[in-house]
Amino acid sequence: MGFGQFLASPEIKLKVVTYRDVFQNTAQETSRFGEEYEKSSAVIKLDPKDIAKLAIKDGDTVIVKNSSGRVVVKAMKSDYEDSHAGIAYMVNSPWSNSLVPDETGGTGVPKFKNFEVTVQGAKGGKVTGISEIF
Amino acid sequence: MSEYYVCTGCALLCDDIEVETENSKIKTVHAACRKGVARMKGCSDPLECTVDSENADIDFAIAKAAEILREAENPLIFGHGNSSSEAQKLSIGLAKKVGAYLDDTSSFCQGPVIEAILQDKLKTCTLDDIRHKADVIIFWGADPSNSHPRHLSRYSYFPRGKERQRGWEEDRTAICVDVRKSETAVICGDNRFYQIPMGGDAEFMDALLSALSSKVPKTSFGFDAKRILELANVLKKAKFGVICVGLGLIYSLEDLEPLFRLMDKLNEVSDFNLMPMVGQYNMRGFNHNLYEEAGYINRVKFNSETADAEHGPDFSVVEALRNKTVDAALVIGSDPLSSLPLSVSRYLAEIPLITIDPCRNLTSSKAKVTIPCALGGVESGGTAVRMDGVEVELKKILDTENLPDAEILRKITEAI
């Protein structure tokens, strides 16, 4: 047991862009409730600088939240060459959708690809299961 | 000669699919992408016929569904992206009969672009035109390598079309405009990838418009003017250009004016078409069917006495759920609890909910009545409309005990 567990994990604000992934989409076709779907959906891709700020390792779980919702997902280092510090990527899924605000300005279209969250290390907390999202 | 089937994995509706069956199941799928193979092989979580979470026979479930819709004052009928055109037309009839809100996924997706195409405000072409003629292809806010895996190989980049015999190596230029370096951007190459900041699409379009008008292009985010001028030169020289519009672009624009301006200019200096990158296999079919019937592509509420339709954002699935203006819902061929913000879709669990789908999903897990239907293009036939507006005939491959979606809707309508 290390001293670190008594310190509050650093928290950072990020913008999230959602995207499509054919492997996750394939898992969805097979089963919304399957392990593969959770594994390929409950992920946030971060810039190495943001991973460092959070004092976490590639593959650790993080709490991602805002006023719309809160999920625990796996944080992974994105493999983009260019830095995108401050911007995180999440595959379009019930996990990302639990964080999309309901504000639409009356247009009927939520901001699926541009919303703010705060991210914090989950200190080994378990990834939110699909049946726990609701 | 082999028999070819149509894949309903996405709105490309690939019609060159061969299958091998064994014990009334699809064993092997040839030619489809991995998503298509998974779709055609069927899910591992088939939906059961239930009422109040208890197994029920189909007639009882249909009677219950009819009762819910009959008793509701403002029912919502939503989904339709994964429904046959026949089912969609019956859905429109049902909505008229019960005075329902009627909407589909285009409402928070490709709707504005499809509407503009149907109203002749945007020049478009078919996927076959792209295959045979397109020499400059722009993927704007679209990543078909993930969303439509065979788009590049069957139509837009790799094939040797009639007028593009030297294929991608010499005859085609693929360009990507996006906020991130997607897999499609990697294929286009660094010289042909234009990475813009989030929300920067409208400004980049206007800068490109300036460049096409031989003016110095300027953006507030300081995009290299030389690169925009180079891009404008490539577009000017196009013999048959196409912009494949993805959700990244649609969500970024407040309205379509910047896109109209750019398309008008491109067609002054060259020849450009627009292709909406529709996701679900028959979303465009719903838009066509409702447009023909009511003059709108989505977001309507029917008056049960006059059958007149009101239309506007207030009748969209998102606003109807957000403002809690509906008091029951029938969801067909869609999973709004997965695909809408939970802050919006949560309300569905508070009202009597009916789902019709081949598979279990988040929405069905909160439904009072669940009715399994045959999987379109595998267990039932019908028609569907491809992303380019071309109608495609779906063929049945396997027998199933589940009724086709259209048959279930017919029975519910009759029972009201």
Automatic annotation (TrEMBL), chain A:
Question: Per the database record, which ranges form the Molybdopterin dinucleotide-binding domain?
Answer: 15-114
* Molecular function terms from GO: molybdopterin cofactor binding; oxidoreductase activity
Q: Which InterPro entries match?
A: Asp_de-COase-like_dom_sf (IPR009010), Formylmethanofuran_DH_dsu (IPR012040), MoPterin_dinucl-bd_dom (IPR006657)
Q: What protein is this chain from? A: Formylmethanofuran dehydrogenase, subunit D
Organism of this sequence: Methanolobus vulcani
UniProtKB/TrEMBL annotation, chain B:
Organism domain of life? Archaea
What InterPro entries is this protein classified in?
Answer: Formylmethanofuran_DH_bsu, Prok_molybdopt-oxidoreductase
A Gene Ontology BP annotation from the UniProt entry: respiratory electron transport chain
Q: Which UniProt keywords apply?
A: Oxidoreductase
GO cellular component labels: membrane
Q: What is this protein called?
A: Formylmethanofuran dehydrogenase, subunit B
UniProt keyword Ion transport, yes or no? no
Instruction: Please name the GO terms that the record assigns under molecular function.
Output: formylmethanofuran dehydrogenase activity; NADH dehydrogenase activity
